[in-house]
Write a structure and sequence with these properties.
Layout: H1 6-38, E1 56-57, E2 63-64
Antiparallel strand pairs: 1-2
């Protein structure tokens, strides 16, 4: 009535584990390559509003400040 699948599972896991590690290494190398080719994606720094000075003209056309 019951079938012994232990031998089948042994073969499946003996094959599956190295295949999964191989795919993991391939994906890791592909990601490293993509990161290298596209450079680092650091966010660009926008000028701070505190550091930027607004130019304000007076009514007679002179720059105040």
């Amino acid at each position: 009535m019951f079938v012994d699948y232990a031998d089948v599972y042994d073969v499946i896991f003996i094959l599956a584990v190295p295949i999964m590690w191989f795919l993991t290494i391939v994906c890791f190398v592909a990601q490293r390559s993509a990161d290298y080719m596209h450079g680092s994606h650091k966010p660009s720094k926008k000028p701070s509003k505190k550091l930027s000075k607004k130019i304000v003209y007076t009514a007679d056309g002179r720059i105040s400040g």
